[in-house]
Amino acid sequence: xxxxxxxxxxxxxxxxxxxxxxxxxxEGLAEAGADIAIFDIIPPxxxxxxxxxxxxxRTAYYFVDVSSPASLQAGFDQFVKDFEGRLDICVPTAGIxxxxxxxxxxxxxxxxxxxxxxxxxxHTAQLAAGQMVKNGTKVxxxxxxxxxxxxxxxxxxxxxxxxxxxxxVRAMVPPIAAELVEYGIRVNSISPGYVRTxxxxxxxxxxxxxxxxxxxxxxxxxxDIRGACVFLASDASKYMTGQDLCIDGGVTKW
Length: 254
Ligand SMILES: NC(=O)c1ccc[n+]([C@@H]2O[C@H](COP(=O)([O-])OP(=O)(O)OC[C@H]3O[C@@H](n4cnc5c(N)ncnc54)[C@H](O)[C@@H]3O)[C@@H](O)[C@H]2O)c1
Known about the structure:
By secondary structure, this protein is α/β, with parallel strands linked by helices. The protein has helices at 20-31, 51-55, 69-82, 107-135, 160-180, 204-210, 223-233, and strands spanning 11-15, 35-40, 59-63, 89-92, 141-145, 186-192, 244-247.
């Protein structure tokens, strides 16, 4: 019997895939059988280069700044050429945070956050959807990465602009899903809770204090979020679109 979680013969594009949650998503999708391309502005961690041999899939890395329309388009064109137009799964994960008070957030800082977290996600999804329509995939799935920051303030952090960007990411999902349903493309989001990555590494004291706020008492590792991505990418979630999956150890429910 073929597992409904299998991604064999599918191609996935993950932005922000060089490390952290994005790299974990890439590993999970590859483990399920998908070929993998990642876009990032930093070179991927060494473990990315072992994915192809470990899971017998194809992998590729492209230097792409998702906040630059020109860079995004150029990277996408090259990816489409290299992968002969194949694309079934897109996971716009690239994101940045800024710990700065509401009263001191500058226009420039805010614009930078919006450029990566909102415009970068939206236009990556748009390019991906256009290619999926073009290649006629019957199993299209777009999974954008929002955050618990779209539901609540981040305790002990000043992150109003970041929270706003994540609210925008979650809010764009139902209307995009509604427009893409006629092409058989599903669109959902993942909202991770507190995850131990380079994004949260500068705040070791917060990683410690957050434990007390999380229902299951621990901060997530990127691997803890991976299963949700594989589920949303695969036929196992084929009746699901326009939704958010909150993978947060219960922090928003306590
Ligand atoms: N770490 C957490 O606690 C947490 C919680 C909820 C949501 N998230 C979200 O998860 C996603 C991944 O974050 P992470 O925790 O793995 O952080 P991370 O900093 O380890 O990973 C982010 C990746 O995005 C890349 N990136 C940043 N700007 C980019 C750009 N302009 N173009 C292309 N790539 C770019 C970075 O180089 C990095 O590889 C982000 O959207 C983040 O907001 C993280």
